[in-house]
Amino acid sequence: MSPSPIQITSRQIALVRTSLTHALPHAAALAELFYARLFELDPSTRMLFPPDMNRQGRKLVDMLDVFAGDLTRWEVLRPAARRLGARHADYGVLDAHYGTVGAALLWALEQTLAGNFTSEVRAAWEAVYVLLTNEMREGSRLRSS
């Protein structure tokens, strides 16, 4: 594994990947729960998305799947996360939105995985989310400078 600014253990990677595998059969429900919660927590985020959320939901699940698959390949993951952050900046995403998105994602995963979303799984997702959003934020900063 390439070096990263935050150490994520192989156990955390396995927990994220396994829990995502359990959530993927319920991908549409996961995405629907995520966006409903996001817009509930911060209604202003709704304007950042297209009117038809079906395609957006699929993009969310695909992105989670790709990022989870690349957690051991930092040299691939880091630039991908930074590019996504730069695109988000172009759409009007603010730094403060990342906290709301994280809260909505964790809540949606908890609802989807129910009893399989243990405190250890939650902590693994939190660690991965922090790692990825730090890189997305950096991509946004690099874009604006």
Automatic annotation (TrEMBL):
The protein's name in its UniProt record: Hemoglobin-like flavoprotein
Record's keyword annotation contains Glycoprotein: no
Assigned keywords, A-Z: Heme, Iron, Metal-binding, Oxygen transport, Transport
Domain Globin: 7-141
GO biological process: cellular response to nitrosative stress; nitric oxide catabolic process
InterPro entries tied to this protein: Globin, Globin-like_sf, Globin/Proto
Keyword Iron in record: yes
Xref: Pfam families: Globin
Any one GO molecular-function label of the UniProt entry: nitric oxide dioxygenase NAD(P)H activity
Organism: Deinococcus hopiensis KR-140
Entry similarity comment: Belongs to the globin family.
